[in-house]
Amino acid sequence: MSTSSRFPLGDVDLWFEERGEGPTVLMMHGGFSDSRDFEDNLGTLRSECRLLLLDRRGHGRTADVDGPLTLEVMADDSIRFIEAVARGPVAVVGYSAGAAVALRVAARRPELVTALVLFSGWFDADGLLVRPAATADWPAEIVEAYGEVSPDGIDHFPVVAAKIAAAAEGEEPLTEGDLGRITCPALVVAADDDLVTLEHTIELYRTLPDGYLAVLPGATHLLLHEHPQACTRLAADFLAGRRGPRRMPFSRPTMAGRDS
Q: What is the pLDDT of residues 174-225, one digit of tens each?
């Protein structure tokens, strides 16, 4: 089963698609893209879950409107979407900027998030090797993909790019206290050659109260498309609670604060 609809939210109508049946999972795509990020990879989770694939404001089939495109604005949209459409706590899977939005949703409203799977995400834009720039020479495939579905048309892409670049420059990072409020299980997944530094990824993993870590070898920031089966298996197992055996008599949490 797959149905698409729109959720009216003030001055913007958020486009979303619903697929599958089971526990509800909100899927958060990357920046400069849309929920098509999950085709031929995490979209197959519909066999185990009810997926809500949301195109955030200014992305995909959701129009841009007056105002900024900050992570905070999109987190607010997502919270209201969870409350009105999902009608209860959900697991959230985020990729790239979608993972950054997901972190803010979970930090602000931890009772709404049962689990997080974060692919190539960040809590502070300083963790990025390269920040988006309004004047960047964007690859034609990114611009053309935007124009294929955007109700604003391909000529509006520079406006959205400028908004995202401005947001990246002015966004306040999440603090250790913010991340400490995220008590649900959270899987942090990164590539070994990611746009997010490995140091930042490890800091995120270590700061989350119930964090788990996976680093895919031979992968880049496009890991969903480069390693679709591995990414899907990681997400499916984690969302289903399949953590694997722990055979060592000690672990990171129990050893915290001890002398080596």
A: 999 999 999 999 999 999 999 999 999 999 999 999 999 999 999 999 999 9
Which CATH class, in words, describes the domain spanning 2-255?
alpha beta
Distance CA 212, CA 204 (A): 10
DSSP 149-203: H-TT-GGGHHHHHHHHHHHHHHPPPPPHHHHHT--S-EEEEEEEE-SB-HHHHHH
Q: Write the single-letter amino acid at 129.
A: L
Instruction: Report the distance separating Cα 46 and Cα 1, nearest Å.
Output: 9
Angle made by CA atoms 35, 65, 195, in degrees to the nearest 5: 45
- Distance, in Å, from the CA atom of 14 to the CA atom of 5, rounded to the nearest integer, reads 8
**How far, in Å, CA of 212 to CA of 252, rounded?**
11
Task: Select from 155, 158, 156 the least CA-distant residue to 137.
Answer: 158
The tens digit of pLDDT for each residue in 19-33 reads: 999 999 999 999 999
